[in-house]
Amino acid sequence: KRFLNELTAAEGLERYLGAKFPGAKRFSLEGGDALIPMLKEMVRHAGNSGTREVVLGMAHRGRLNVLINVLGKKPQDLFDEFAGKHKEHLGTGDVKYHMGFSSDIETEGGLVHLALAFNPSHLEIVSPVVMGSVRARLDRLDEPSSNKVLPITIHGDAAVTGQGVVQ
Known about the structure:
Blueprint: H1 2-20, H2 35-48, E1 53-58, H3 63-69, H4 75-82, E2 101-107, E3 110-116, H5 126-141, E4 149-154
Parallel strand pairs: 1-3, 1-4
Antiparallel strand pairs: 2-3
């Protein structure tokens, strides 16, 4: 039942964005909707296994859906960005599908901090950035071989698997 609810939320957001903002670039998750329940289950399992932080790196495809349905960004904030109402003086001026975000998610095993890395335009460059962020977090915890921080990198469909960092 939970899987179906999470899948429905993912599809519902895509339908809404497509209907409400028909000409806007949004890099839809359509066809890959199962990413949302998969990521949410990974976070739940990680939290129950003692992980306290998850650092996520991904390209454009599905990023807005992940922001809302996994990291818990307020949908109204995203809709305001589409409508041009976002507060540029508080941000970098980058496009909405490059922005990072962080939040705390409650799991049965405790609170897990999620961080979605900002996405540079160069394909796959976010993966080494995520790995460096995870290493820095582990160093800060003084537990370099710990499972307290989990990196998740998602390879998009815009590059060939195994191609590595493309610039």
